[in-house]
Each structure stands twice: as structure tokens, then as C-alpha cells.
């Protein structure tokens, strides 16, 4: 399998606080990797560094063989690295269809067109397709404010997918979604992921969700990767059970996880 | 060499005046996150109140300098505190939680209203209250003449600056205000009466504006529009120094004051230009002013 | 190119005004010209507002447009009105392209204050320029239009015709612009900059283009005001004038390309009477109306139209 993402010695310090320390991870094309860890363990810091939101203090990141450290989200997006957000990042006062049309025009590098409407027939068609796939087509012409949290999560992920990425980082896709909805939401998302052949890095608190949808797990504790391997192996690890899965410690977020 | 002295003297006199004008603005912004466009109008209100009270006093044949100062202080504090209370309780309170930019527009509306209120109350003919300024006299440093009144303004400015510092850093209320600045929700949850603190802060800020106007009244002719002119100067000072910071306002005032004095003594035609050029230059290198904190972005 | 309904209506209204103007008294024609010119500057404010920015310094570009007309006639010997307007656009665009590099780094009140500061810099320079009449300003030369020299009493109508044509062209363009990729990208930036960046769109570039365009449109408004009024002075750059533009923008709302025109017309007409009837209460009226709009019609008077439409259907 070809390698798509590799980090070496990736670290991040906030003053004296170590948010991430010496993270060495290699991910191959097509892998679905779960990232677990208690709050403040460094998951989001890791994701934020990989997606260019947070500059690493040390270490290197390579995407698709070339170094990406220091690149902003915009460049990474262009290289094929997209992300969704724990709190969906959407254009609340715009219709759902326009949220998608803007993403599509950006993906076509046509974001500076001044005369041609953003809603071209082709974009509307593409938007309708993904709305249908995500099962949120009934919100098509509503403002995002009219959508419930689950639908917003799906729209957020749909927008990330419209950039034609090769790798997708999902930041807690089921947080804030009710228990009953979680599995339908994840089924929808994973189906879309499979169809597009995406590599996925997937931060999640819910171990049942992790177990069901990923093939490999990175377990984080106090800023470090304490275990990296197949699902069963990681979840059976004593240290992981103690520090990550044993009890769901819910300590206040300290590193800007929100 | 003489020019250098003149620049330094004029610069610091002007700087202390600028600090008086800007202090209230920055206090209100620092605590409440409201950039009060109507601050200039409070300055004008203070000037009108002081000028008409002084006019009445001197028309009665009064000639005591200390009474004149007391009149300035009382009239400015009264009108500042009362207008501050009315504006905060009557209007701003209904709007809390809105965008900073919307609050700016709301205070712009207040400015428009106050401008005309002042015209309706005091008319459009100028008010003069030069007596205290003249009575203070002047003295010479070499060939430069310095008015003692200006020195008094300087002293007042220092006193107010220290007072604000003491209030915010050393008193119990200052501690509460800093907790509000740090995190409003948490302070509220901890039982701080944020609304009351806001009312007090706004009244104090407004009063500072009115005091600035009051002490300026003897130096200028009080006419409609002085507030509108002053507010942009105050903006330049607080933005240069960093919005919401008292130290910033002081440093900003000194920088702007010296820059203006330099311009007046060397290139008078650039006087207004230089003030904003200083501000723009600072912002190019320090986007949030010298002592301003960059707003954290949140995902 | 197929024209949609809004575009047909805009053209229709422009033609109707052009015809009615032939039978209207001079003062009304003049007021209309001023209203249209003002609306163009307000249009720039609206373009910025759609991107989430409030400019308290759009008077800068208004003034540049005006002074370009004045100076072009006086020092370059240009008399053709269109060339003068074009000169204003060029000068303004160059200035905006430089300022835009700095301005696009700022949001919210910082953008508002910095735009205010830049317009006050121009004001400060003009007030101290004795060669240009300081605070009094100076008169604009008699102008021609494409070889036609307006005779006595024709200048007002000619100015209106020119303003109408320019405003129509700009309105048609902006109507499409607002719905285009970049137009929507502006609204997207207002809504959520983080997401815009993660879509692969540079928010600085979008804001930059929008800022420069808004400035150019504002300059046309300033140039037309100068041509119609025959006079320019530094108050064009004073910040309270920019405040009026913000007022009109909020009055109309950002919902439709026609809104600034309607709001500017109401503003100009009411001012004509208010300044005579209650000269010391005009600003107070503005302030109170502004508060009422913010409280009760946050999307401007245009929302009244759309609400009615919704109720009818």
C-alpha cells in the first residue's frame, strides 16, 4: 500500500504545557484510522497540526511524499487534505445549496468569477447528488440555521468531500448527535467515504463507533501516541484501557479542543 | 534646540489632554467591548455644562479660581454620570450580546442624537469660559511661554491615569472587572453582577469624557461639532496604544502628542495627517496596537 | 445573454426616470442626481457589509472621485465628463489597491476605525491644501459629454442622464456580482472565515477584490456628485459623511441591489425638507431612525418589500 501521510517527531508546546510530543505515524492510502484518547490527550492538537491550523513546534509532516509543514489550510486543501469539524463550520445564514455551491466553485478554482452565478446547473446537480447521498436533501433550500445538529454534521462533512480530497480528517463526527442517530450518521458517512476511496483519520470518543468503523487505532495519552495498531490489539492493551477506554474521564478541555 | 524644547513641551501638554479624552473610551472598551462613538459627545456635554456653569458664576461677579475649578468638576461629573447612566440603562442595556460592530453603529446613533440635543439645549452660538485659563497666568522657559492651566491639565491627567490604574489593579472592584474582561460567562456564573458592573464602568467612562470636556472648556470656544472632532483623535490614540489598555492609551497619547507637536513646529500643513499616519504605521507592524491583545480565533 | 426579472426592472425604472426627468423641475432632477450618486457610494458600503465589514471611511473614495473630477478639469484640462469619471476610478482603484493590502487584515471595529482613519488622512491633507481652497474647496470646470456641451439649464438634466446610465451599468453588474462565486464567497467570509479557508478559498484575496471594487464604485458616486453640484470640498472625506453612508446602507439593507437607491432617495428627499424645517433636529432624526431600524428592521427597509411579497403568494 502506498503511504499518504507520515509524521516524524511531531510536537507542540503551549508555553510549558506539552500538547503533543514526538508523534510518529504513517498512514497508507485507503486506511480508516481511528484516533482515540481522553480529552486533552492531544488528539485535536494532532489533527490541527496535520491540517495546518496549528503550526507544530517540532517535527515534520509529509503528505503524499512531500513535506507540508508550515502550509496553511488552503494549500493543504489544494493538495487533497480536507477536514470536518467537531463543531460544524458552516455558513449559517446562507441556504444549504449555496454552502455547497461555494465549495464546488472553490474546488473548480472558479472562486473569483464575478458575473457567472455561483449556482450553475452543473453545481446544482453535484450538490443535489451529495445532499441525497448524505440524506439531507430535504434541507436543500433552507438556511443552515434550520438544520438540526446531525444534519449540520453531515453537511460539514459533505462540504469537506466536495473539495475532492484524497484524505479526510473527521473531527468527532458524532459528538453532539443523539445515540439513535449516531449509527445512521456514520453509516451514511462511511458509505460516501468508501465510494470515493478516501483515506480517513477519524477522531472519536465513542468506542463502539470506533470499533465498528475503523481498521486501525492511534491511542493518545498526555500528548503521546501510546499504542498504534489494529483495533482489537489496541483496545486490549492494558495501558490503553487504563488511560483511554477504562473510564471516560471527562476533564475540562485545556488545549482549545473546541 | 529651542524647537526641540517647544516640541517636547507642547507634545506632552497635548499628550496629557489626549489621554484625558481617550481614557474613558478605552476603559469602556476594555471592560464592555463597546467602542463608544458617542464618547466625543460626552466630552462636548462636559464642555457645555462647564462653560455655561462658569459663565453663570462669572456673571454673578465670582472671581475665585478654586470655586471655578469646583464648578468645572461638579458640572462635568454630574452631566457625565447622568448621561452615562441614561445611555447605559436606557439603550445599551437592551443591546448587550450583539456584535461589537453593531454596538459601534448603535453608539454612532447616540452620537447623532446627542449632537442635536446639545444644539437644542445650548443653541449654536459659541460659549466661552476663558476666565480660569487667563487667571492661572503663564510663565516663561527661556523664550517659550507656558500656561499654568496647561500644567494643571497635565497634573490632572497623571492623577486620573494613576487613579484608573489603582482602581483596576488594586481595588476589589478592579479585580471583579478584570475577571469580567477575562471571561464574562464564568464571572457571571460565579455570582458577579455583570450588569451592575457595566453600568458603573460606563458611568465612569462617560464621566471621564465629560471631565475632559469640562477642563478643556476654558481653553476653547465651545461650539457644536467639537465632540465629533475629538472622537476621531481619541480613536487614533486608543487604536495606536491598543484598544482597552490604559497603559496603551497613555503611550498612544504620548506618541500622538509628540508627533503632532513635531508636525506643528516643523511642517504645520501635515498636522492632521501625521496623527493618522502614526496610527496607520503602528497598525502595519502591530495589527492590534502597541498594547492590544490579538483576539483569539476559535474553531 | 438572457436578462432576468431584476435586470429588466432596473432598466425599466431607469428609462422611466429618464423620461419623467424631462418634465420635472430642476430641483427634483438635481435631487435625483444626488440621490443616485449617493446610492453608488452606499453600494460600496453595502458590498463591504455583505462581506461582514463596516466602513466608516467610504467617504475617502467618494472624495477621491470628486477631487479627481475637480483636479482633472482644473490642472489637466479635461472637460469630458466620462473621462473625468474614468480618471476618478483609476485614481481610486490605485489608492484602494494599496490600502487594501492593509485593510484586508482587519475585521469588525478595527476595519471600521482604520477606514475612518484613512479618510481622515485625506481630509487632513485637503484642509491644509491652500492651493485647493482649504476647507472651502473649489469649483468644478464646465464639463462636456462626448462632444456635447450642455447649455444653460441643460447641465442638471445631462448630469442626471449620465448618472442614470452609469448607475444602471453598475447596478446590472452588481446584481450579477452578488450572485456570483466571489459575491457568495464574500457572504461566506462574513458567515465563517475558517470554513472559507478550509474550502481552499483565500479570504484575503476575495476581500481584496471586493474592497477595490467597492472603492471604484464609490468613486463614481463622488465624481457624479462633483459634476452635478459643480463643487468639491474636503468634507466629502470627513468621517460623519461616511457615517451617513453607513446609515443609508443600513436603512436600505443588503438584500437587493435596488435597496441602496431607494434608501438614498428617501434620505436625500427627507434631508431636503428636514434641513429647512428642523435644521437642529436632522441628526437626531437620523439617530432615532437608525436605532429603530436596528431594533425592528435589522435587514433594512428592503425586508418590507420581500415580506409583502411573501404574504401575497
TrEMBL record, chain A:
CDD domains: ABC_Mj1267_LivG_branched (cd03219). Transmembrane segments: none annotated. This is ABC transporter ATP-binding protein. Keywords: ATP-binding, Nucleotide-binding, Transport. Pfam families: ABC_tran. GO terms for molecular function: ATP binding. InterPro entries: AAA+_ATPase, ABC_AA/LPS_Transport, ABC_transporter-like_ATP-bd, P-loop_NTPase. The keyword Glycoprotein does not apply. The keyword Nucleotide-binding applies. The lineage of its organism: Bacteria, Pseudomonadati, Pseudomonadota, Gammaproteobacteria, Pseudomonadales. Residues 5-247 form the ABC transporter domain.
TrEMBL record, chain B:
It holds the Pfam family BPD_transp_2. Keywords: Amino-acid transport, Cell membrane, Membrane, Transmembrane, Transmembrane helix, Transport. Its main location: membrane. Coiled coil: none annotated. It is a multi-pass membrane protein. It is found in: Cell inner membrane. The chain crosses the membrane at residues 12-35, 42-59, 65-88, 100-122, 151-168, 200-224, 230-258, 270-296. The keyword Transport applies. Belongs to the binding-protein-dependent transport system permease family. LivHM subfamily. This is Amino acid/amide ABC transporter membrane protein 1, HAAT family.
UniProtKB/TrEMBL annotation, chain C:
It comes from the Bacteria. InterPro entries: ABC_transp_permease (IPR001851), LivM-like (IPR043428). The chain crosses the membrane at residues 7-23, 29-48, 60-76, 82-102, 109-126, 155-174, 208-230, 245-270, 282-305. The keyword Transport does not apply. Keywords: Cell membrane, Membrane, Transmembrane, Transmembrane helix. It is found in: Cell inner membrane. The keyword S-adenosyl-L-methionine does not apply. PANTHER family: ABC TRANSPORTER ATP-BINDING PROTEIN, HIGH-AFFINITY BRANCHED-CHAIN AMINO ACID TRANSPORT SYSTEM PERMEASE. This is Branched-chain amino acid ABC transporter permease. It comes from Marinobacter zhanjiangensis.
